Amino acid sequence: xxAGQLAKLKGCRVWEVQETDEKVNLLKDELNFxxxxxxxxxxxxxxxxxxxxxxxIDVYFENVGxxxxxxxxxxxxxxxxxxxxxxxxxxxxxWTERQGIRNLLNMVGKDVKMEGFMIxxxxxxxxxxxxxxxxxxxxxxxxxxxxxxNGIESFLPSLVSLFSSSNVGKVIIEVNK
Length: 177
Ligand SMILES: NC(=O)c1ccc[n+]([C@@H]2O[C@H](COP(=O)([O-])OP(=O)(O)OC[C@H]3O[C@@H](n4cnc5c(N)ncnc54)[C@H](OP(=O)(O)O)[C@@H]3O)[C@@H](O)[C@H]2O)c1
Hints:
By secondary structure, the protein is α/β, with parallel strands linked by helices.
């Protein structure tokens, strides 16, 4: 949600894939995304991506992995870029049972660049980033959605909720001294 809004602020045309119609409508109506689709309703990702990206994909911000990454690689444009932030669909499986990506070869023919990153490696930019984000939120250019849970005892249900699509926006745990 944040990455998409930031891309929009930088002038990109942005689509996002979400799990519920409520989230799809939020992105389109409130956050000004160019489009979004519900991956539980449009389950053939290859067909969905053909429909939503007739001109192909230039940048795919990867948070999901598995089937979605494989489908995206069938629709990338020449010199597309794929920053690897995470692959949440694959975390709860031992690595030998994770879904392999069969079409990595598409990266060769299209000069695609895929690169992993960890936030910690860019922490020296945090001051500038926080200043930019604060400004965008104050000016109403960036909308922050979150669900606040109370107390350290809410840690486990909060963590589990990340995998069950029960939240809209970030999950924050408030802990009082
Ligand atoms: N590289 C780094 O330094 C770094 C740091 C922090 C986090 N991350 C990664 O960034 C991603 C987002 O993390 P976050 O902490 O910001 O979580 P988040 O976006 O607040 O919540 C995770 C979301 O992932 C979606 N999801 C869960 N299971 C899924 C599945 N099987 N297929 C597709 N989507 C699924 C759910 O969205 P829906 O309800 O809409 O399906 C859930 O709300 C994760 O992949 C995480 O590992 C990377």
